[in-house]
Amino acid sequence: MRGVGVAAGSAAVGLLSDSTAFILASFFISPLMSKVLAVGWGITIKDYVLAGRGLRNMMCGAMLAVASGIAAGAFLSISPNQREIEQPVYVGNGLYSGISINSKEILSRGPPFANVLSSMVVAALSGVAVALGMPSGISSALAGVAMSAALLPPAVNVGLMAELHLVYPQLRTEHGATLLEIAAYGGVLYGANVLFIIMFAVATFKLKHIGGKTLRPMWRANRTRARRVSSTVTLLDSLPIPTPPPQPRTSATATADALDDALDDALARRSRTSSEPMTP
Asked: What is the pTM (predicted TM-score) of this model?
C-alpha cells in the first residue's frame, strides 16, 4: 500500500499543476491495476476468494488515495489564498502560482457528465487491453497509460476537492462548479471506471474461451492422482516376478539335442587330429 500513497501524491501534484507527466508517473508507481485484474481474473475462473481479496485491496487502495488527496488539500490550507489558487497555472508570483483548481486535469474530472462518459470509454478499452495483454506479459506497459487516467486521479481528486471545499466553501471553478461537485464527480468516475474495467476484462477473457473453475482444486486432484500412481508402482516393484515353468522335453527336442552333441564331438576329434604331429 505504500506504493499507492506515493503514487497518490504524484497524482495530486499532477492534478494541481496540470502536468500529464505526473499523472502518468503515478500509475507506474501504483499497484492498483494488479488489484483490479485480480478481481476480473477471479470472476473469470470462478475463484471468488481471489476476487474478494482483490476487491478488498482495491477498496483499501482507493481509501488511501482519497486520504492522500485530503492530506494535499490540508497542506494547501495552511496559508489560504483564494485569489491565487483560482488563477490559471503559472499566473502570478505568489506561493500558489504553480498550481490551480482550474487546471485541465481537475476540470476534466468534474462536470459536465460528458467527462464521465469519455472516461468510461477509456476504462472499457483499458479492460480489453489488460485481458489481451495478460498472456504476453505486456499488459502493464500498454494498459497502464490508459488506466492511469481512469483510476488513481479521480480518487485523489475526491479527497483534494473535499478538503479544499472546507477551506473555500464559496469557491467555484471557471465553469461554475463548486469544489464539492467536482469531488462527487470524482467518486462517480472512480466507481464507473472500476466497474467498466472489470466488466470488459471479464468479457474479453470469455471471448478468448478462458473460464472454468479455479486451478487450486485441479492442482490438488493432480497431486492426489500422482501419489496414487506412485504407490501403485512401489507395490508392483515389491512383488516377486514369477518364473515360467520348465517346458517338457519332447522326442523332437531330444533328437535335436543328440544331433548337436554328436556334431560337437566330431568337430572336437577333427580338431585334435589336425593338431597331432605327422610321423614319417
From this structure: 0.68
